[in-house]
Structure formats: C-alpha cells, structure tokens
Amino acid sequence: SSSEQGQNSEGKKLVVGATMLSMQNEFIVNVADEMEKKANESNVELIVVDAERSPLKQVEQVESFIAQKVDAIILNPCEVEASSPAVTKAMAAKIPIINVNSATSAKPTAFVGSDDVESGRIAMKYIAEKLGGKGNVVMMHGLMGQAAQIQREQGAQEILKQYPNMKLLAHQTAGWDRAKGMALMENWIQSYGNQINAVFAQNDEMGMGAVKALTDAGLKNKVIVVSIDAIPDALQAVKKGTLDATVFQNAQQQGSKAIETAIRIAKGESYEKETLIPFQLVTKENLAKFLN
Amino acid sequence: MPNLCSMIPTQKPKSTYLNQVGESYKTRLRGLSTYGILLAFIAICIVLALITPRFLTISNLTIVLTQVSINALLAFGVTFVIITGGIDLSIGSMVAVTGVVAAMFAHPDTYPVGVPLLMGLLTGLLFGAFNGLVITRSKVHPFIVTLGTMTMGRGLALILSKGRPISNLSDEFNFIGGGQVLGIPMPIIILIVFFIICSVLLQKTVLGRYMYAVGGNEQAARASGISLNKVKMVVYTLCGGLAGLAGIVLTSRITTGQPNAGAGFELDAIAAAIIGGTSTSGGTGTMTGTLIGALLIGVISNGLDLLNVTSYYQQVVMGIIIIGAVVLDSWNQNRNK
Amino acid sequence: MPNLCSMIPTQKPKSTYLNQVGESYKTRLRGLSTYGILLAFIAICIVLALITPRFLTISNLTIVLTQVSINALLAFGVTFVIITGGIDLSIGSMVAVTGVVAAMFAHPDTYPVGVPLLMGLLTGLLFGAFNGLVITRSKVHPFIVTLGTMTMGRGLALILSKGRPISNLSDEFNFIGGGQVLGIPMPIIILIVFFIICSVLLQKTVLGRYMYAVGGNEQAARASGISLNKVKMVVYTLCGGLAGLAGIVLTSRITTGQPNAGAGFELDAIAAAIIGGTSTSGGTGTMTGTLIGALLIGVISNGLDLLNVTSYYQQVVMGIIIIGAVVLDSWNQNRNK
Amino acid sequence: MTQPPTPILQVRDLSKSFAGVKALDNVQLNVQRGEVHAVMGENGAGKSTLMKILIGLHTPDAGEVMFERSPLPYGDVHEILKRGISMIHQELQVVPELTVAQNIFLGRETTGGLFSWLNDRRQEREAGLLLEQMGVTIRPGQTMKYLSVAEMQMVEIAKAISNQAKIIIMDEPTSALSDKEVAALFRIISELKKNGVAIIYISHKMEEIFEIADTITVLRDGQYIDTQPAANLNRNSLIAMMVGREIESLFPESVPRKGQEVLSVRNLSRAGKFTDINFTVHEGEVLGLAGLMGAGRTEIARAIFGLDELESGEIYIKGQKADIHSPQDAIQHGIGYVSEDRKALGFIPGLSVKHNITLASLPNHSKGGLIQDKTETEAAAKMIADLKIKSAGMHQKVTYLSGGNQQKVVIGKVLLASPDLIILDEPTRGIDIGAKSEIYKLINRLTASGIAVIMISSELPEIIGMSDRVVVLSQGRQTATLSKEEATPETIMAYAMHA
Ligand SMILES: Nc1ncnc2c1ncn2[C@@H]1O[C@H](COP(=O)(O)OP(=O)(O)OP(=O)(O)O)[C@@H](O)[C@H]1O
Ligand SMILES: Nc1ncnc2c1ncn2[C@@H]1O[C@H](COP(=O)(O)OP(=O)(O)OP(=O)(O)O)[C@@H](O)[C@H]1O
Ligand SMILES: [Mg+2]
Ligand SMILES: [Mg+2]
C-alpha cells in the first residue's frame, strides 16, 4: 500500500540524497522538481543539494551522503570522469547510487537518462537536412571542458563529417549564457554577415540569444537556429517560428524514474539497470506535444 | 592611537621656488594618465582596423558600444566606490536580482512599463544601501561584506525566480535594451546619459568632491567636517542603483530575467575602472577613464571574435592585452615622473 | 635664547607609565582578534551539533576537514600575499593549470608518481613567479595583473587539455587526494603538514618577518634594507606553489585533470584569509586565523547540506553567517578598544 | 698648518633631479670622523634628498660619493647599512604592526638555531637594554602603533644607533620630541662623538645647531652655498646664508585686543588622557597650551573639536552650551582645528591646493549641491593671496608643496570656514625659519581681526613669544594659568613638571 511505500526493511522512512549538476539550469531544476514531487508521493525523504557545476563539490556531497548513511543516492553528474569518484565511493560504502541524466565512467548501480552525444547529433542532423547538406554553420559552445559541451560538440561533429559540403565557419564559447550568446552572434554577424546559413547553439539560452541578435540584424529569416533543452522560452520561440528547432529531454520522466529506481533498489526489489529516455526533436510540426 | 597615515611617507614636500615650473609640468603629465590609456586604446583600435576591415564599420562600432554599455554602467558605479577607497563585489549579483525583479513586473498587460523600471532601480538602490549600511555600521572591510552580499544576492535572485528565467516581457520593457531612437540603440543612449550624469556628479558637485576627499585621506576628510558614513552610504547606494539600471538594460536586451545573469561582471567592471586609472587605494579616478577602460575591454573582446580567435586563445590574448595596456601606461607615467 | 636644556626635567612624565599598562592590555586583547573568530566558529559548531546529530560524528568531521583542505591550502598562499599588501586573483586558474599539467603526466605506467607531482608543483611555482615578476617589474596593481593572469591561466588550461578533462590517472597519483594513512585521509595530512610549514615560515623566519614589514610599511621596509621585489617575488611564487599543491590534491581527488576546475576558488580563499583576521591593507594576519576562516566556511557549507537547506537559501544563509561572524568579531574588538 | 685628516665621507659635485626639477645641483659635503656636521637650508633645499642618496634610497644622476675611500654602492640600502651608515628619517619609517624590538632590528634580525629561526626574545632583551641606556621607558614588546609619535621617534633613534654605524644621519630627529628627549638625544650624540662616530645633523631649530654642531654646510634651492665651522657663525649670519636675506625679528609685535569670551571649557575629562580642564579664550586673544610631551594637549584639542568623544565636562561657545560630537558640529559652532599631524589630519594629498582650501567650506561655494566654480576659485585665490601660499598654481596637488606651504593650505582651509576660534596644534613643526615667521605674522593678523586662537606648542620660545596667556598642563592635569608677564621659561617648566 502507498503508506508503506517509502519505508525500508526496518520500517523507517527512506532517505534519498540527490546531488544536482546546477540548480541554476532550468532543465535540471525541472528534473529536481519532478524528483521532489515523486518523493512526496512515495513518502520518501529527499535531500537535494546543488553541486554548482563543480565535480569536486559533487564528490564531497556524496561523501557527506555516505556519512549520513542515506538509503540511496541520486547523482546528476557534472562530469563523466571527475564525478566518477562519487560513484566509486558510494559503491564501496554499499549505498546504491543512481545516475540521472548523464553518465559517469564508473558504473553506478543504475542509470536513468539519455546520451548527450545523441542530442548533438539530432540537432546537427536537422540543420544538415534543412540546408540540403550544404552551407555554412556556426556553433556556440557551452562552458568549455564540461561534459555537456564536449558531448554535444562530439555529436554535432560526427554529423558534420558526414556532410562534406557543410562548413563550420566558426565556433566559440558563450558559456551557456543568453547575453553572451547574443553578443557573440552580433560579432559573428559583423564578421560573416550573410555567409552564415545556420547556428547550432549547445543550449537554448545561447540559442535564444542568437535568435535575438539575428532578429535585430534582420537576418533571422535567412538563418536557421537550432539549440538543445526545450525550455519553455525555446518552445515559445519555436511556436513563433524564430527558433527553428530545439531538442527535448524529458525532465519529468528522468526525475520520476530516478526516484522510482532508487526506491526499488533500496527496498531490494528488482529494477532496471538502465532506463534510456530518448531525446526528441521539437519543431513547429510536433510542437503541440511538448507545450502544456 | 597615533594616526597611522602620518607614518606612511607621502611625496616629499617640494621647494617653493625651484619647482614651480617643474610641478606644473608634472601636474600636466599626471593628468595624462587617462590620456595614456586612451593612447593604448586608440593603438589597439588602429591595429584591429588594419587587420580586419570589418572592425571599423559604423554597424560594428554601434554593436561594440551597445555591448559595452552594461559593463560601463556597472563600472561607473564601482568607480564611485573605489574612489572612496572601497570595493563592491556584489554588482554581478545585483544585476541578477534587479533583472529578475524588473522582469517580474514586466509581463505584458500587467503594469505600465514604469513599474518594472522603478522596481528594478529601487531594488538596486536598496541592495546598495544595505551594503553601505553594513559597511558603515560594522566597520568590516567592504571586500568581505560585498562578498557576502554577492552570495546572498545570487541566492535571492534564484529564490525570487525559483531558479527559472522569467520571460514573456512587454514590448515597451524590451524597448529599453533593444529599441532604437533616431537609429541609435537605447543602451548607447542610456550609456551616454549616465556617463554625463556620473561625470557631473563626480566633478561638479559637493558630493563628488567629498568622495575624492574620503578616499584620499579619510581622517583628514573627517576633520574637514565631512561625514564619512554619509558619503559611503551614498556611493554604495549609487553603485547599487547603477547596477539596477544595468540589470534592467540586460534583462530587456535578452528579453528575460535571468537569475544567473551577471556572474563575474564585478571583475570586468572593476577592471574597467582600474584600467581607466582609478587607484584601488582611493582618491583618484575619473568617469572618462573608466569609460575608456570599458571600451578597451569591449573592443578587444569584439576584435577577438571578429578575428575568430579560438576561444581558448581568446582568454590568453585578453589577459595579455589588458596587462600589456596597463603596463605600458604605467611605464609611460614612470618615465615622465 | 635661554638654554632650554638646563631646564629639562630629569623626572619622566608619568603618563608614559600609565600608557604602558593600558597599551599592553590593549595589545593582549588585539591578539584575541583570531580568538574572536574562533569563538564564532565554536558557536556555530555548537549550534550545528544541537540541531543535527549527524554533524558531530567522526565521519562527518573527517569529511569536513577533507573538504576544507583545498581551500585552506589556497588560503595559506593568499595569506602570504595579502600580508605583504598584495592580492592574487589567479589562484583558481592556477589550480586548473597545475591540475591539468599533473594529470598529463599521471597516466598509469608512464612516469613514476613523483613526476606528475613535481610537474604540477613546478607549474604552480612558475605561474606564481610570473605573477611576481610582472607585479614587481611593472608596478601595476596586483589586482589587475592577477586578474589578467587569471584569464590567461584559464585559457592555458584549456589549451593544454584541448578543452577536455584528462582522466585515466594512476592509482598512486589518485592516492594523494583519495588515499588514507592510518585511517586519516591524505588531504588532511597534507593540510596539517603545510599548515605547520606555513605557520613556521611566517612566524619564525626572517622571510616571514619581512612579509609583515613590507605589508605594514613598504617604505620603512625599504629603508631598513629589505628588498621589496625579492619579498614580493617570494610570496607570489609561494602562493603559486601552494595553488599547485591544491591543484594536485583536487585532480587526484576527482581523478581527473579539469581545465575548468577552481573557478571562483580565489574568492573563497581570500574570504578565509580575511575572516581569519588578515587585513587587506597588509601587515597583519596569521595562518591559524586563516585556517579557522577556512574551517568556518567549510563547516557552514557542510551544516547547510546536512540540514537540507534548499540550495538557493543556502547561499543567502552562507552570506549572512559570514558577514555576521566578521561583524561580531569586529564589534567585539571595537568594544575592547 | 697641519693637513686635515681625510674625511670619512666625501661628496663631490652631486646632482639629482626629479622630472626635470633639480633637487641637488653640484653639491659638496665632507664629513670627518667624530664631528657633528649640520646640514642647513630652507624647506625643499635638498637636504633630505642628499641624505637619501647617502643611505641608498635614491641614486644620484651625477657626481661622486666616497665612503671610507671607496665609492658608495649607490641604491643598495642593505649594503650601505652594512658598511656602516645609518639614518633617522625625517618621515617616521616604522612598521606599525610590529613590536618595538622587531622594528629596531628590522633588516638585521637576530637569528639562531639550525634553520636560523628568529629569536624575538633575545631581540627584546637587547632592545630593552638599548632603550634603557638611552633613558627612555618604552616596553620593547609593545606593538609600535600604540606608541605616541615622540616615542616612535625615540625608537627610530634607537634603531639607527644600534646599527654600530660609522656615520649616523639624523634628518630632523627632534621635530616630534620635547625638550627632555632632545636632551637625551644630545647626550647620546656626545657619547657617539667620543667613539669617533660622525653625525650628519639636520634641523630647523637654530638653538640645537649652535649647541651641538661642529661644522655647518648650507644648501639653498639644491645648490651648495658654503661650509663653515660652527664657531665662525652666529644665528643671523647662518640665516642669511640659508635664506639669502636677513630676517629681523621672529616674533612680530602685536597689540592685544581682548574682546568677548569665545570658548570656555569646564571640567573637561577623558579617562587616562586629561582631567578637570578649565579655561576660557576671548576674541583677539592667543591662549598658549604648554606642557611636556604626552601632557594631553593634543587630546584636549581633539576633544573640543569633536574628533574624540568627551567623557565629562562642558564646552560653552559664546556663553551657550555646545554639544559637539563630530568635527562637523565643531565647525558649525565656529571652531577650527589645525592638527599637529598635517599629513594625517590636515590635507588630502591627491587633491589640488584649491580643492583642499575649500574642502571644509564647500557648501558655501555651492548651490543645490553643485559647486559654483567661480565662487570657489575666487575664495581659494583670495586665501592663497592672503596667506602668500607659494605653489605652481592652485591646481597643483598639495603633496608637491613644501611643508610650510602645506601648513598654510591647512590653515587656509580652516579659515575659509570662518571660525571664531582656531586651535593651532604645533603650527610650526618641521617648518623653516622663514615660513615660521610668516605663520607668526598670520596669527597676529587673525587675532587682530577678532579671532580667538589656542596655540599648542612644544617650543617654549614660541609659546612665550606668541601667547597672551598660558595654560600649563602636566600629566593630563592643569597645573597653572599664567599671564604674559608670569610666563617665563622657568615658571612654565616648573609647572609642566609639577606632579
Ligand atoms: N590616538 C591615541 N591613542 C592612544 N594614545 C594616545 C593617542 N594620542 C595620544 N596618546 C597618548 O596620550 C598621551 C597624551 O598625548 P597628547 O598627544 O595629547 O600629548 P601632547 O601634550 O599633545 O603632546 P605631544 O607634544 O606629543 O603632542 C600621550 O601619552 C600619548 O602617547
Ligand atoms: N621623490 C621625489 N619626487 C619628486 N620630487 C622630489 C622627490 N623628493 C624630493 N623632491 C623634491 O626635491 C626637492 C628637495 O627636497 P628635500 O626633501 O630634499 O628638501 P629638504 O631640504 O629636506 O626640505 P625640508 O626641510 O622641508 O625637509 C624639493 O623640491 C622636493 O619637492
Ligand atoms: Mg627634509
Ligand atoms: Mg600634541
């Protein structure tokens, strides 16, 4: 019955600790909110902490969870490698650890999420198809060296390689930030003017900045802009037609599935070792599905 | 306690007869400190114009100015603070808080555009006044106080916005950062207006004079009947107000209130002020210098993008050019001394 | 002219005595400055222990100490710098560069573990020496120089690592940050060893004395035959070396060389030093104070996590507590004056 | 005639300029072992610059310095100190956060043990002995910043002496000392002379020069004028050499014009500083405050001016009780204060002459917060003309002015706030004889226009020459109030030492 859902074998309320990549990132906040909701429903105590994009902080937070002897840990990794010690330490302490959203090189008890490389592929593929496999692209990176930046770039580059007539004119970081994305796009417009056919921004924030700069310069109709995350702003922009496409990651599913898995493991029930939640391309055509 | 300032040897008193000519010469050269960095700035502009024809176009220069506006507004505020011998690290967070607050009142068909403007500014002024209050009451170093309020402000912005960008702002509001008047982008107009206001305030008013006095020698200022606490309250509040304005311009420019906007802006603003000749020990600095400092940073950043320098190298080059410009300026000044 | 010397009293004015009693009393209380922040620290610990039973456990305290170690090492370095009246904003970037360099040499079956250690340290020392060189040669304010090298360092770390984390490090290397000796985590051991080394250096050696002298009154130090440039070179180099060590510990702890590690670390380290009583105007400060400052920050951050304070509120509370602790300390000092 | 022995220090044709200004122009100086060699000249004559070259703080542009027959290692302070030249600097060169002993041994610390650890305990012992020999009671473990200026000056003297130097340069060592310490210093000097140490001595106090100097070298505007045995000179001939003209009488005649009561203080007290102080000052009157160093005179002035809080007692201004808690209040009540420490409390070094002069009266030169440049400039120009302030113009920064002119700027600032009462605390400290007589004339002009003056001074001739009445303090207590006739050096001293 639901009243005993969140209890461990000794009948005490289950405690789950979660460390999130960054609570300043809208997508991650959405995942965390879903987890919170699900935890409330299941009568589980959820402790959410913010790693502020620092893998060191994340490792320390997991250490702290271990010291507190939580029943399960949910890890939303900052980094593939650098967050791995967190996994190793939890495993060594025999506390189940579930990776949500993205992977670490060390193998956790279970994984719920998707592969960021795939999102880069989806976005760039859309651009390539729109341009008919020919044209000039610019790419906006997130903060250099971060897992999401590396993987999204990797996916995009894979696709670019398949289209020899597509040229990467320039690529530069705008640090995941809308204002910086806007400034960068403004400067690119100065350098390349009409040569740019498409923009791939590694997240919606930068994408929205690029859209703003292009609109101001009166170039939006000539340039395709695609980004990743499908935040509400981006969906609105897709609706208006200013943003051509974004890539949707299912925050709701990632959040609730993560908690579900954690509870199952903690209670010693059977669970999925890997729950893959696919990315989906969002364009004007299928937009309705994502607006709620 | 003996006053410690008395032990810090200042420049030797000069002989009256001998140096009058020399002094006025030196004084004139001293004034050139701003001039020196202006030369560095012009040199960089010339180099950029030679390397890339895209640099020296009206449209590109307009963009540079627009991009510079936010940093310049912040730098004006922090120039006041640094002139009095203080520092403000919380300006980046103030940009976020004020932007979020303004955005909360800027949805279409809710309030007239004056309301988000007022609320944003007011938030900035209050935040700044809070800084000033803690600094003057507690006598704790402004570095640590504003480091604390920087963290607090960031948290506040996240709490107010629940960690999500606030979008869907009215067109009137978005005009502030995105509109144009007579073909001139609004941020540039705001920049020019506030440059003039701040310059006048600093150079032509009693308050401005008191700022120099407090930063130049706090004890002597006090003994001249100046209330140190009042002057400090005013500069931190002003700095907050200008950060509020910058927050509004930024929010309006990107048409979203961003709780994580402005991170690191404090360092750029302080850099602009120092590059422009404001001494961190207080008592010197001008708004013109600060404006040139902000322009220097803006032009370099624009130029590196135009030249498509890889982002890794951009950072290295940016660092080298900034240090280089200031080093050249300081050598130049020392040689003339 | 009457001969004044004949009238000179042989009896000395009593006020000198009077003064001495009062003064030495004051001096003793002054020494309590560190003590004040220690009290604040203990108070916070007691409060935490009362609120949550999880706080006062060996395992939790071990974790806090381990977590504090990196910030403390950085704070030790920057304490040297601040005591001489300087500042170093580049320590966060140095952590990244040294970590990346160390990781490049730390793959299993390539070099013995001494090589990455040495290379990391050397990189830090060189970086710091570069800071010192520019600061002493150019006479540009350390704030702007290290702001420049902060940007440059970040770029360098990205260039060296090609923007990617460097992983697959040897077990020996990972032992530095992740291993234990007699049940004590290595970072804690390193922390204690370097706390002692830095304390002794500052308190017991001529070099340490010169640091205080240079920061207390540069001109007086120079007039006493102390080479300002040498002392400054040493402190920036030391600061770089300690940042290198912190970079190694960090890299080893997260088993990856991260080009974007350490962002913002400079502010935490400076905060620890200032909270611990190092004055930004130079001439005062102790390693014990800095250690307590770092512990204070670490304990608050740990406590807020333990209490499950929402991350947004954590920042607000963190800001309030830090300002609060320093304010209390300063009131306490003023009252005793 | 016997050949004079080779000088231990020979300076030949030394020149030094700053940004095109010649501070020294072909200067000569020969110093013999065991002599006290006075170097004299007006403010800005180049005395300190010459000394800073000798100690290595400046490097010369041209010329030659031979010390013990070998060239001086220019610019290397450390090496020069080691070779045996040490210096008491005109500006206090102390590290406030270090202890007395640490300051004394700064740069040549006592170390011991395998790793040459600092040995603070031994340093304190040695410093204690040294200070005791000098006859001063300063605890060697005391933090420097808690000492009075005079005590710091004594520590600086101890530091220079303890270097076992062959030449000790003393650049205005007595400007912050009272007579008792001066006597101690002179005892030390004669001791050093006996041991063959040469002293280069700089002071603006004439009596001192004639008391201790063997030889006198005079500089004027950076140029070498002459060197003479002290015995060949008298006060007037020396002044003539320095100034290039005669100065007749130092203290101008004045007609006392005592008017209404301006200030009256009753039972002023501040724990540990002063107790039960009562006096009254009238329009057109100069009230002298005399006492030994540390008698509490400055403390009383600071309290009246609102820089420090009073603990008890009342202040009456023109018969009305006044509540003064800040300098602002004091200025509003018509009080002006010229501090003994003009660098710390007097002026803003980075601001111009004009801006400094108008600082305390700025609201009077502004409308609605906006400074009226014309009114301000006129007011400043008038004050500059009135006080004969010499500068390159009113836009020159005050840092670059000579000490006397800096002092006049501070007085000008105070005057422009139109006070009824001015407190002058050591108004002539470190000021050359020409500027001194101008300041005395100025005081007379102030009283003539009905302003009341309180003058604090450690120079008895000044107190006696200028005051209409003298209040004498001893250890924070008022021991006498003397009329002009009663105020002889002997009586003042007797009351100043009164327990
Ligand atoms: N700011 C201060 N803090 C602590 N002690 C002080 C302070 N100022 C002065 N004193 C001490 O108080 C006593 C009175 O000093 P004060 O300056 O009033 O003496 P004075 O009579 O003016 O002598 P002086 O000739 O030195 O100016 C001295 O012993 C001095 O050391
Ligand atoms: N560091 C400096 N930079 C520029 N000018 C200087 C410097 N030091 C001294 N001067 C100038 O050199 C000249 C000589 O100054 P110096 O200090 O030697 O005079 P002085 O004879 O010691 O005067 P006083 O009696 O006031 O101490 C003055 O005109 C002074 O302004
Ligand atoms: Mg001099
Ligand atoms: Mg006095």
TrEMBL record, chains B, C:
Transmembrane segments: 32-51, 63-83, 89-106, 113-134, 140-160, 181-202, 233-255, 267-300, 312-331
Entry annotated with the keyword Transmembrane: yes
Keywords: Cell membrane, Membrane, Transmembrane, Transmembrane helix
Subcellular location: Cell membrane
CDD domains found in the cross-reference section: TM_PBP1_transp_AraH_like (cd06579)
Repeat recorded as keyword: no
Pfam name, any one: BPD_transp_2
Protein known as: Sugar ABC transporter permease
Species: Nibrella saemangeumensis
UniProtKB/TrEMBL annotation, chain D:
InterPro entries associated with the record: AAA+_ATPase, ABC_carbohydrate_import_ATPase, ABC_transporter-like_ATP-bd, ABC_transporter-like_CS, P-loop_NTPase
Presence of keyword Transport: yes
Gene Ontology molecular function: any one: ATP binding
UniProt keyword list: ATP-binding, Cell membrane, Membrane, Nucleotide-binding, Repeat, Sugar transport, Translocase, Transport
ABC transporter domain residues: 9-246, 257-499
Listed SMART domains: AAA
Membrane-crossing residue ranges in chain numbering: none
Alphabetized Gene3D superfamilies for the sequence: P-loop containing nucleotide triphosphate hydrolases
PANTHER family xref list: CARBOHYDRATE TRANSPORT ATP-BINDING PROTEIN MG119-RELATED, D-ALLOSE IMPORT ATP-BINDING PROTEIN ALSA-RELATED
Protein name: Sugar ABC transporter ATP-binding protein
Naturally occurring in which organism (per UniProt): Nibrella saemangeumensis
